[in-house]
């Protein structure tokens, strides 16, 4: 009985000690985990912290290398990089610069001073649009662009020949019908092709429909002013010729009109225009190939004409030759 009593009395105390020991082990394990976590965060903080000592060592080494490089360079070639010091102000010189001597304008053979190069350049300057149009016209007349010149020359010649054979109303009507037949046929062909291929290419002439073909007011004023200047000069010249301001010029004009009466009896206006068109597209090429011979014969004819005019002026009372 006593032994059983002892066993029953000691059994609860052993269970209590086991529970305390288990709780102590759990607390110890949790504390060790917390210590490990703290050591881990400390190591990461130390790894992320910048090493100021190494940075200062690198900066010092760079400064030493820069100083050695500066010492090896000549005095005049010292670099200004990384030099943040304010530059010394240059001493202001009190002496005024001497003015340049004005060169006199060169005197030409006729006693007048020649124009300055700047003024000459301003007078001879040509606008880009005007020079471009002149160059395109020259290229057209000299057959330097064969397809373009051929199209322009052929279309112009065909138009003039059609006007010589038919009336202007018939020519305009036939040309309009021919152009409409081409455009309508092309439009129908493109529509059928798009329906068969099930494509959406749009209108075949969309590029030309969206293009602005109107004449701007600036362009109209420009060409209007130019035409007005030429018209006024023509009116003044006709007034001078008809009112016999210069007798010789009026006589020349009369002879020209007398010759044109014979020309009008042989040709009409359209024939003259056709001959002029052919001459405009053929004469520049011929002159370019045979320039020396043409200039020689032209000089001889010009000299003979001047001699004849001088004799006529000498016989006409009151007619004085012009001073060249």
Question: What would the keywords be for this entry?
Answer:
0% strand, disordered N terminus, 324 residues, mainly alpha
Can you give a write-up of this model?
This is Reticulon. It is found in: Endoplasmic reticulum membrane. Among the domains are: 2-72; 153-212; 245-324, no CATH class. The protein has 11 helices and no strands. It has helices at 2-48, 52-72, 117-124, 128-141, 146-165, 168-197, 206-209, 217-242, 247-266, 269-289, 291-315. It starts with a helix and ends in a 9-residue tail after the last helix. The model is unreliable at 1-13, 76-87, 89-99 and 101-126 (pLDDT under 50).
- What share of the residues lie within helices? over 70%
Q: What's the number of extended β-strand segments? A: 0
Percent strand: under 5%
- The helix/strand order is HHHHHHHHHHH
Helical run tally? 11
Shape estimate: elongated
The largest pleated sheet is described as: none
Characterize the quaternary organization of these chains.
Answer: single chain
| Poorly predicted ranges | 1-13, 76-87, 89-99, 101-126
Tell me the distance between the termini: 169 Å
The secondary-structure class comes to mainly alpha
Radius of gyration: 52 Å
Mean pLDDT: 75
Topology:
Blueprint: H1 2-48, H2 52-72, H3 117-124, H4 128-141, H5 146-165, H6 168-197, H7 206-209, H8 217-242, H9 247-266, H10 269-289, H11 291-315
């Amino acid at each position: 009985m006593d032994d059983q009593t002892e066993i029953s009395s000691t059994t609860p105390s052993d269970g209590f000690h086991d529970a305390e020991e288990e709780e102590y082990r759990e607390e110890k394990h949790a504390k060790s985990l917390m210590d490990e976590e703290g050591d881990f965060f400390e190591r990461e903080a130390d790894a992320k912290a910048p090493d100021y000592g190494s940075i200062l060592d690198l900066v010092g080494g760079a400064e030493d290398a820069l100083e050695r490089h500066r010492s090896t360079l000549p005095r005049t070639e010292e670099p200004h990089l990384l030099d943040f010091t304010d530059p010394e102000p240059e001493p202001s010189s009190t002496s005024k610069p001497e003015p340049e001597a004005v060169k006199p304008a060169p005197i030409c053979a006729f006693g007048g001073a020649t124009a300055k190069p700047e003024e000459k350049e301003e007078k001879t300057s040509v606008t880009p649009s005007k020079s471009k149009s002149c160059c395109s016209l020259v290229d057209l007349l000299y057959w330097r662009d064969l397809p373009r010149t051929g199209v322009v020359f052929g279309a112009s010649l065909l138009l003039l020949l059609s006007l010589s054979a038919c009336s202007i109303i018939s020519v305009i009507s036939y040309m309009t019908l021919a152009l409409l037949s081409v455009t309508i046929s092309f439009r129908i062909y493109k529509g059928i092709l798009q329906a068969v291929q099930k494509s959406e290419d749009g209108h075949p002439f969309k590029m030309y429909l969206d293009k602005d073909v109107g004449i701007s007011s600036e362009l109209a004023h420009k060409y209007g002013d130019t035409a007005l200047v030429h018209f006024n000069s023509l009116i003044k010249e006709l007034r001078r010729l008809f009112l016999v301001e210069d007798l010789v010029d009026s006589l020349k004009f009369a002879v020209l009109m007398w010759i044109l009466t014979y020309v009008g009896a042989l040709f009409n206006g359209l024939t003259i225009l056709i001959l002029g068109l052919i001459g405009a597209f053929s004469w520049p090429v011929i002159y370019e190939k045979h320039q020396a011979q043409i200039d020689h014969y032209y000089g001889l004819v010009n000299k003979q004409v001047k001699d004849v005019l001088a004799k006529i002026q000498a016989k006409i009372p009151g007619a004085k030759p012009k001073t060249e």
